[in-house]
UniProtKB/TrEMBL annotation:
Lineage: Bacteria, Bacillati, Actinomycetota, Actinomycetes, Pseudonocardiales
Protein name according to UniProt: Uncharacterized conserved protein, DUF2236 family
InterPro entries tied to this protein: MPAB/Lcp_cat_dom (IPR018713)
Family annotation (Pfam families): MPAB_Lcp_cat (PF09995)
Domain ER-bound oxygenase mpaB/mpaB'/Rubber oxygenase catalytic: 20-256
Organism of provenance: Amycolatopsis marina
GO molecular function term, any single one: oxidoreductase activity
Length: 286
């Protein structure tokens, strides 16, 4: 085991960490589309998803697999972050080629791989800022130290992880400004969010529309509204003052509801189950 992996093994976040408390909070589902858009807007990620993924045919299946993968390396589900890192590297080894603009790409390009990791940290920060209690400066510093450790466990190297959150935020802004683009994968994500395909041919079209149209409107509002404005313009997405007011009203309601929920309802069941089991294990060990 190399030094980076040994360090990560010793310091991965657990109960009480900023990451465990904040990452999987339930309101995050409203910004999941934003995180995915930020990822596939990177030319390397977008090309890999377009040419090597089944997202277009089965967006919800793909989203569920991604959710499970994230829980494995954030909360240590299954064999934990190191095992998930090895699995991800193996899965992505063969994802390479030449995109429609003639650019060569490889899914394990360290800059693209690190970008995906950074979007997950940004997702946590944005979810807290919009739908909960914003992370304080000490929490931001601690969160990024924890995310650096997760990144090392996933196979990233020190030089591809910003030293602190201020540098990570500056890098995020630079990538948005200079690298991200509208592409076929971003269009597929937006379509899946706002007009999702039926999961079963046996589900009647009118019923499916009744179930998904309201949710699609909400997800479009939260997704488009939380994108960096420069990227929103690059994707030619309309955003009005009325949309801004609607998002602010929704955020107030979500914050009010979330603060009154009992703890088990503030997290997805899988994540909360891990949190409770690890708490109990540590109490027994004392």
């Amino acid at each position: 085991m190399d030094d980076d992996v040994q360090l990560a093994a010793e310091t991965l976040p657990g109960p009480g960490s900023v990451t465990w408390r904040r990452f999987a909070r339930a309101p995050g589902v409203l910004l999941a589309g934003t995180g995915l858009l930020l990822q596939v807007a990177h030319p390397v990620v977008g090309a890999g998803v377009l040419e090597h993924s089944d997202f277009r045919r089965r967006p919800w299946t793909r989203a569920w697999r991604t959710h499970l993968s994230t829980l494995r390396f954030v909360y240590g589900m299954g064999e934990g972050a190191h095992a998930e890192g090895r699995r991800l590297i193996e899965v992505h080894k063969g994802i390479k080629g030449v995109d429609s603009a003639g650019r060569r790409y490889h899914a394990l390009d360290p800059h693209a791989y690190a970008w995906v990791h950074l979007t997950l940290a940004r997702f946590m920060v944005d979810t807290a800022a919009l739908f909960g209690d914003p992370l304080t400066e000490p929490e931001l510093a601690q969160m990024w130290r924890e995310f650096r450790m997760i990144g090392l466990a996933l196979g990233l190297k020190e030089q591809h992880l910003a030293p602190d959150w201020a540098a990570a935020s500056a890098h995020f802004d630079a990538v948005v400004r200079d690298t991200l683009e509208a592409n076929e994968s971003t269009r597929d994500v937006l379509e899946a969010l706002t007009a999702p395909a039926k999961p079963s041919r046996f589900l009647p079209d009118p019923l499916w529309k009744l179930l998904t149209l309201p949710a699609g409107r909400v997800l479009r509002l939260t997704t488009v509204g939380s994108l960096p404005p420069v990227l929103r313009q690059r994707m030619d997405l309309t955003w009005t003052e009325r949309d801004e007011r609607s998002l602010a009203r929704l955020a107030r309601v979500v914050r009010a509801v979330d603060r009154r929920l009992p703890e088990p309802l503030r997290y997805p069941p899988l994540a909360y189950g891990v949190i409770v089991r690890e708490r109990l294990r540590r109490r027994r060990a004392v």
